[in-house]
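Researcher: Let's try something more involved. This one mixes different molecule types, so please make sure each is placed in the same coordinate frame as the others.
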Amino acid sequence: MQIFNIVIAGVGGQGVLMASKVLAESALVSGMDVKQNEVHGMAQRGGSVISFVRIGDQVNSPVVMPGSADLLISFEPLEALRYIHYLKPGGRLIYSKVSINPSTVASGLAIYPDDVEQQIAAICAEAQGIEALAIAREAGNGKAVNMVMVGSVMKHLPLKEEVITEVVKKISQGKGVEVNLKALAGGAAA
Amino acid sequence: MKKIISGNEAIALGFGDSGGVFASGYPGTPSTETLEEVARLGEVYCEWAPNEKVALESAIGGSIAGGRSLSTMKHVGVNVAADALLTLTYTGVNAGLILMVSDDPGMHSSQNEQDSRNYAKFAKVPMLDPSDSQEAYDFVKVGFEISEQFDTPLMLRTTTRISHAKGVVIQQDKIAPQIGEWVKDVPKYVMLPNFGKLKHIEVEARLLKLQEYAETTPLNRIEMRETELGIITSGVAYQHVREACPDASVLKLGMIHPLPARKIREFAKSVKRLVIVEEMDAIFEEQIRAMGIDVEIGKNKLPLCGEINADIIRTALELTVTGATPPVEGLPQRPPVFCPSCAHRGLFTILSKLKVFVSGDIGCYTLGALPPMSAMHSVIDMGASISAAHGMAKVNAIAGRDEKPVAVIGDSTFFHSGMTGLMSMAYNGGNALVIIMDNRTTGMTGGQENPGSGVTLQGIPARQVEMVPLVKALGIDNVAELNAYDLKETEAAIKKGLETPGPYVLIDKNPCILRYKIRKPAMNVDEEKCTGCRACLKVTCMALGLITVGEKQKVRVDPNVCNGCGICMQMCKFDAMHTLEGENNANL
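Model: All components are placed in one shared frame. Result:
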């Protein structure tokens, strides 16, 4: 198969890396070649985070080039707009509608644009916004936004939903298993 | 069994599977996870050293005592360890010794972009450069074999995209550790001039033997495809080359020092156009051009700065580049910021207010340099906050300037190399205020243990270094404690430190909230009382934001982000901020 390029964007602390891990492990279990890469320099919360997952028969570079992503998953609207140029023509964008203020906005140095979703729609007409935080809370924990987002893209991946569900079950711990599976299902139904 | 793991995890796994016995390193992005994974795997002894020099020297001891040893660090760490490395190359090893160094092209989390391949040339040691997780795993075993066969330390080099990228790894059979004899051998291990002179001759002879090895080892392989274009490359750049021009012939170098001159000539002859793709310095290119070989494209078209990717290679070769639309412009930046409820926020709120010159250091607190705080004015290398502040104070005194510099340093950086600077300041009659943010962890790299944590890398309880007696022992009489969560107290303490002549040390003992998972009830804002004056926003916390209520702007606290430290509350003159009762839901 041709390489399927996924870009996952969000804010430090939102669980972008965990979501990337689920997709990469699922590809491995499915017998595909896969490379996953993100740059995690500083441990602090609040910075912009971008992660790449590339799935195919043979994957060389761990990096997705701008203009070549089949799928962009963003955990925050502004971050969707920041990385929207990674999408290839006809690529799919799914994002969480809950905005998180950058520190530049929180300190009054910048203004969070009030038309982020309109700008997204103008560039990618089929972009889909998800109420991920509400779905995560319904599943039992607001922190499960990452699993809601994985759930919301499942049907667009070259991976079987059962495989992803099994991987989530395997890498979640304790009470997190139930919450994460609910969040996954909630995302899939969104 | 197949696994998907990062290059760092692969090196850790490879170390355990290659009979590794002893590992010592210092945290530094992107190398950190290697030793963490050795600890997690739990099969081989490993430890954090207080700095890279100590780490490498301990690994040297491990090798002399007969155990295969590993030392891990980031590129700038090798500068600290270089004193050991440049003589270790003379003594050679007993059991195999690998120095793993992680470069950071693109400077994702580093203060410079130095290319560690220079150190392999400088120290005249072999260097391996894996191009994915599988090679990272495999090269540990072959690295130990080379180290022992040629009686040399070996450098295993990664870059950020190797250390942090995950790929599929197939694990090989495990070799059980075999600890050799601990032998006294004065001419080999005592580098007095008379022994060193003989050793230098051996080093040069060893390099020639390694060059012969490089000619025949499968680590360096020619992949012949079309003969129009031939590319010499290594590391992650190899993967980008395969992506950018899948039909080109490639000489893939796995062993990048010393270079296989005959193999390079043979490859150059077999292709029409020769291209060299290497990130950062022109190390291959300079050597290959010096062999008299014609190179069409190298650093004349490819960048010396930053990372290389498939599009950059395509552009240099004038091939079609994916038609990407440009990024959306004018969006608010989202830089990393102090975590909600981090004690550094209180300190820098006051330092920013007092407008003092802050000599900074390497750690989370370096973020104090960013606007709107803009309260850090020099950051050079580990430990420089104190020694540079000392120099500033001396010149200020000569110039007749009555201003005392402030040095800010964390506990791990202080243990690493701030202590010596402070001792010098005490000894040489210095005059600076030194603030030690002792949060009991190495925060910026993700919360690793250090001599102040009370626990080792392997989770064993350990003697905890106490900061106050240590600082006093270095010769400082004026030492006081600081609580950066209390803004008034912090301001008063800093002012006292600035007014008191001579060296003065303030120590904040608040633990890292991220590392120690400290939770406090969130704050909220009384909209009736909030005037929208923005005084609280000066503390730069991502839990705060402005909302429009009617015609006025008011501050709102995001309860999913706030961790209730109350620093913003102390900025409010209108009593508009209060603590929310109940459970904290902060996403930390």
